[in-house]
Amino acid sequence: MHEVSIIQSMLDIAFNQAESQGANQIHQLNLRVGAISGVVPEALQFAFDSCTEGTIASEAKLEIEWVKAICYCPQCHAEFTPHDWVYVCPRCERLTHEIRQGRELQLVSLEVS
Ligand SMILES: [Zn+2]
């Protein structure tokens, strides 16, 4: 599952950070996830729960900030929110490849002690 490897790599970073700060518990992980990052929220939470079991993050909360998708049409300089997976400009109906935001998938911060 895609989400497991994402969580695994984020936890690797989190464990390293906690260790370098001399912390022995992770309380919260703050993630920023784009609407078109291809990640399923439930799967992300499920992966998080199973990957943190028996670790210093077993009690940690997964906080996700969702970023909505925004595309840009170079033809008429319009920014718009795409629907589904088709990025068609609502004004000129051209397809665009320019995505301004919505693909984020990052660990923003974490709370440890
Ligand atoms: Zn357009």
TrEMBL record:
Record: residues binding Zn(2+): 73, 76, 89, 92
Binding residue positions for Ni(2+): 2
Keywords for this protein: Metal-binding, Nickel, Zinc
Source organism superkingdom: Bacteria
Oxidoreductase is among the record's keywords: no
Coiled coil: none
A Pfam family of this chain: HypA
Record has Zinc as a keyword: yes
Function: Involved in the maturation of [NiFe] hydrogenases. Required for nickel insertion into the metal center of the hydrogenase.
Family designation: Belongs to the HypA/HybF family.
Protein's name in the database: Hydrogenase maturation factor HypA
Organism name: Pseudanabaena yagii GIHE-NHR1
Gene: hypA
